[in-house]
Amino acid sequence: MFFILFIPVILNGQNDTIFIQKSIYSVLYSQKLEQPLEITYRSTNRQSRVKSKNLNFYLEKGIHTSNNLDYHNNIYDKGHLVPAGSFLDNMKNLKETYSFLNCTLQNQFLNRGEWRLLEEQERIWDDKEPLTIKIKVIFDENSIKLPTGATVPSAYIKEIFFEKSKKNKCYHFTNEKQILKWYKCEIKCQ
Questions:
Q1: Which of 37, 53, 102, 155 is a plausible cystine mate for 28, CB 3.0–4.6 Å?
Q2: 73-95: per-residue pLDDT in tens?
Q3: What is the per-residue DSSP string for 127-184?
Q4: Tally of domains within the chain
Q5: Is the pTM of this model over 0.85?
């Protein structure tokens, strides 16, 4: 169950940017870019009870998102922004992470490398205190529009708020194979 709030951004007579509140995350989504612009979720110490085997990303009725064709035969993974590994507490939550609303055209080396390692670190941090995580998806003049219609993000900024200690950590990743380790990608939070 989710609700859609249409933000008044009209392009070619069609609402472009929409806000969707799912049960485990909220997302600001661009139907024109076919990519999330921003997503927010809480990471808490959830007990793993289910496995993510054989799950596929699914389309949301009435929302124009990327789809399987955008990820076919190129270097881009279907990158989870809200990590499936943080929501293995029940099948409903896990399935919500497989919505194309939570999917980004992420360079396979970033997705399977430093991005994944930071997600693993978040699950260590959330053992001590809950985290609120906001990911900003960056598009600029270097963003590539695929022939299938979706636009490839140029970068990501991940803001992690430690709820008890009231501290922030922010990380900037370009959408390519990272030269630096995830902890070397920390930036000053805005």
A1: 37
A2: 999 999 999 999 999 999 999 99
A3: TTS-EEEEEEEE--TTPPBPTTS-B--SEEEEEEEETTTTEEEEEEEESS--SS-GGG
A4: 1
A5: yes
